[in-house]
Write a structure and sequence with these properties.
This protein is α+β, with helices and mostly antiparallel strands. The chain folds into two domains: 70 residues; 121 residues, Immunoglobulin-like (Sandwich). It is built from three helices and eleven strands, in the order H-E-E-E-E-E-E-E-E-E-E-E-H-H. The strands form two sheets. The protein has a six-stranded mixed sheet with strand order 2-11-9-4-7-6, with no helix packed on it. The chain has a five-stranded mixed sheet with strand order 5-8-3-1-10, with no helix packed on it. Helix 1 packs antiparallel against helix 2, helix 1 crosses helix 3 and helix 2 crosses helix 3. The chain is elongated, with a radius of gyration of 21 Å. This is Cohesin domain-containing protein. It comes from Candidatus Dojkabacteria bacterium. Keywords: Membrane, Signal, Transmembrane, Transmembrane helix.
Length: 219
Amino acid sequence: MKKYRKIFILTVFFLLLSVGIASAEYNSVSLVPSSGTITKDGTYLEISVDSGTDEFIGIDLDMSFTGPVEFVSATQVAGKCGTLNVFPQSGGAVINVECFNTGEQTPAPYNGAVISLLFKATGEGDSTFTFTRLDPTSAKSTGGNYILTLQSGSTERRETTETPKTGLFDNTNGTILLGTGLLLLGISWSVLSSFVSEGKEKFVFIQKESRRKKFEEKI
């Protein structure tokens, strides 16, 4: 019995390793809204992050933009950036944004706006915003396309709300892992669930600690 137990634990561990590596990233990073008008008075664009089942510890990114548009200022949203730095680069056509979630003792998964950026048009035309680098990486990133106008417009920031994240098995990874374990070993559902939960918690903990240390080195 002990022999089969060891085989089972090793099998689950390697399955967790393969799933964990594939999902060691945020679900998405996007610019909101993804289209619209940027005026001479300034328009707010928000960076929204869906961290999936990973805790939101922050984000370090580069974003490029084309056309006669200028970055003005940045503000954190929902208290998710205890430390927020923005560094214009490449003559102002690229900005480096560093958001470190130092304000929460125990970071949790998060889905919503984290940073509000104010841009103003310095001429007429079109502008394309693109995320050129993301850390942590993201399965999906969405920039935006905007019309630039020298007409006046409102600079009010839109209200944002957090979309709460729920449990571990909100994605298909848990279901796939459980089904694979049952097919391989033919054991009961309750026993498999117990071992999977314990193994995945340990693996995710190690993965998160590694990512946290990497971010702490940047602060």
